[in-house]
């Protein structure tokens, strides 16, 4: 005898009749946002970014630019936080920019003062590395040609910030001549990095793809800056 009762539902079907085991394109994007946001929860992201930017003047391989871009990508996702679609704890764009710029200037100042006092010891340390010696010579000549504006450009070049700050201190350049350009360089780099992360997320969605494209754009800017810094003037 047939038993009449409530219809059976598939385990993969919700009470609204929708399959819960199937992810839509939008839910995949949101998962990506959650993954990024989980790594950039405030306030710790500001501490991590500040330390990374401050220290990469001494250790240029630190991924400070990548961290800033990733945090900015999460900040772009924050526009939907009020609806509950994305994590509510995401970095603030202005605070992130000021954090990165301030840490950049402080790192430059520390390197500048250490080089000022280091003198002969710093010269001996640089002399042990052909790469550092070559970079110091190239950038020193470029600075002599381009003046303070080149400090801003060198901020985007790999290890350019380190060479500029250490060379300025070792040659006892005036702090009044160096620090304003250092501040402008740090602010320009921070604004550019944050803008890459934010607009990349706006165009491609707040996912790892957007972060990767933005990081590639940052590296491209660094390669371009290196080329301009090393380029000799016509007729030289």
TrEMBL record:
Topology term for the membrane: Multi-pass membrane protein
Pfam annotation, one family: VTT_dom
Keyword Transmembrane tagged: yes
UniProtKB keywords: Cell membrane, Membrane, Transmembrane, Transmembrane helix
Keyword DNA-binding included in the entry's annotation: no
Domain VTT positions: 87-198
Localization terms from the record: Cell membrane
GO cellular component terms, semicolon-separated: plasma membrane
Transmembrane segments: 41-59, 66-87, 93-115, 178-200, 206-229
Family, as annotated: Belongs to the DedA family.
Name recorded for this polypeptide: VTT domain-containing protein
